[in-house]
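From the shared-data thread, chain only:
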Amino acid sequence: MNESILWTVLSGGYLLGIILLDTRFPRLTGDVGNPKTFPFPVLYERVEGALPSKVIRERDPSLLPPFIEAARSLRSQGAQAITTSCGFLAIWQKELASAVRIPVLTSSLMQIPWVHEMMGRKGRIGVFTIDASSLTEDHFKGVGADGIPLLIHGMKQEGEFYRVYAGNNPDLDYQRAEKEVVIEISGLVKENPDVRAIVLECANMSVFRKVIREAAGIPVYDLLTLIHFFRLGLSERER
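Structure, as tokens:
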């Protein structure tokens, strides 16, 4: 019995419950939708009908009740904390957190206030997102990140990354998508020298986190850094 399974058996639960959108695109290692991404047990709950377009562009309010139901289901199955697979769910941080009595980490955007403080409140924080036109002040308000100087930069809608992850397509040209994120992040940093750090909104960008960090040359934070921050706050037995 490996350590992950043994922990689950002894503790009677899972460290992390993850609410998934209704997607068919590849979940590669580094993606929160792939259990191999984590060195601890995870539990998944899919929200049927929560297509990326409905969450990112439409902000469909009818999806909130099933997301709350998914959070409660994960809690009842033994999850110690809950996260999601889309940074745009920051808009419902308060609603989801109030629905369950365990920590809820809806979005990597929750890190923006911390990062701003760490950087001495100087310059701007870059937010690298899948869709800049759909990321609004309401999303930042949802996680207490409004009022902070930000530079929002998105992927091009005609590109491979957007086609696969926003368009929910099952085939991915990895090299092409990787090249796109490197070009975008390099341009962001080069053209905006006042950007002190970057937060990746899109949870799927973590698949490319190594090349993003190399191209950025400044601190980069994503959903995985948020998750591991939570984990480090637990006792040895809990984690």
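Strands lie at 16-20, 42-46, 82-84, 104-105, 124-129, 150-154, 195-200, 220-221.
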